[in-house]
Amino acid sequence: MMTDNRKSCNFIVQLMIGFFWSMPLVATTINFKYHISTDKALTQVTVKLCVGDRAIYGLRSTSRHSQKLLTWLSKEFQMHFASGNRIKFKQALKNQCIKYKIDLVAAEKMLARSLITRFGTDLLLSPSFWLFLPNNTSEKDQVRATLSLPKGMSFSTPWQKIAGDNDNRIHYRIKITPDNWSSLLAFGYFKIIKIKADNTNLRVALINELRFKTVNKIKLWLQAAVKAVTSAYGQFPVHNPQILVIPSSSSGQAVRFGQASQGGGHGIQFYVNPNRPIEEFLDDWIAAHELSHLFLPELDHEGTWFSEGVATYYQNILRARVGQLSKQQAWQEIYDGFLRGMQGMSSKNLRQATLNMYRDHSYMRIYWSGTAITLMADIELRIKTRGRLNLDKLLKKFNNCCSSQMTEWSLTDLFRKFDELANVPVFMPLYRRYAQSKKFPATTGLLTKLGVEVVKGKVTLKNAAALSEIRRRITENKKPGTP
Known about the structure:
By secondary structure, the protein is α+β, with helices and mostly antiparallel strands. It has helices spanning 4-21, 66-69, 104-110, 215-230, 278-282, 286-292, 304-321, 327-343, 350-355, 357-360, 363-384, 391-401, 411-422, 427-434, 444-450, 468-474, and strands at 31-38, 44-51, 56-60, 70-72, 79-83, 86-93, 97-103, 116-119, 122-125, 133-134, 142-148, 154-156, 160-164, 169-174, 185-188, 191-196, 201-206, 242-247, 255-261, 267-272, 452-455, 458-461.
């Protein structure tokens, strides 16, 4: 659990941020302030950008279509598009403001649905095509945004809220992240609910809420997933993540798809069929999987096998800990997954297969190889530290000390840090053993040692095996701090 001192520090930091919002920009800090507004029908978004005393010579978006959607409103500043997504100024912008607007109706016709989609009176849109950033931003810059919304309009974002005014003006701090990191914002007349975790709240936006016959169903589903994820080390891994729950009534299952994103902050999108029975929601694994992605920072492309492996491992182990799966069911799911991973093998080694995963559709091989290696790492941590550490405790140590040190981690940097924190070599030896391997990690003997016995494809658990006590502890729900 978070200590009282840490809570006090966070409260003081929030007060300081609110105080500095009204102070003039100082020469030692690059500050960018946005004022964003829209109309009731969500046909356009208007953006005012004010910069400090560092000269800005241009702006950028990440969509080549931005030029066709933008109307420049600051006629006193001469500009031109160097390309479809880059603006250049004739003279530097310094201690000044510029203004432009984006045509959202045209954007809907021109852009992919992943960038802008309307659900009734609600609009989901990526900031990538309309929120122009100065060319020379870095993750150290202080970027803030004020939203002015029509009366009754809701807004959902991964940005962290600083304060709100009575006149529907809301202030946010935007985390600068790489341009290719995705995120979704939501404008509209939807309902926002809070799901309580021990140390934070999840901000859940129910998009096109008229499609949701009962909010209680969604609450129970997400509360179950939060309970499972919190069982790893007693607290939720990030603060105030954005959750978008989006209707997909054509789906034959309760939860069709989920996706975690870290552009501008932590966000997760779930596509659900709200008409499905509550039993299907409570049987879902996708929510636990996507929330488990929040245990790790954003990794480079090679790190996909590990990030998906951790999420897949925990979607089964953590749900078993809190009674949402039986212990036997969890290990059956893991065994069946290993079989699917073996069937998805190719001539590429694990690193090559990961880099080509989307082209080759080698998802089963990547996800379940990563799960197998994650299981091996958890076991080795427990053995080599004589129970002092396990994967849960190591992730907590990393989260407390290091998760915000870099915007993006390479997989090898992360593994070196893990081994440093554990004070035993576990992750880098596993990386050297399997990253260049064309074979699926050897799991048959390992499962036998854990007491996971398989007869005609059906798992039974044996308590007399060499590592059966470790298997029992992996799925045991203990209070944080107990061995």
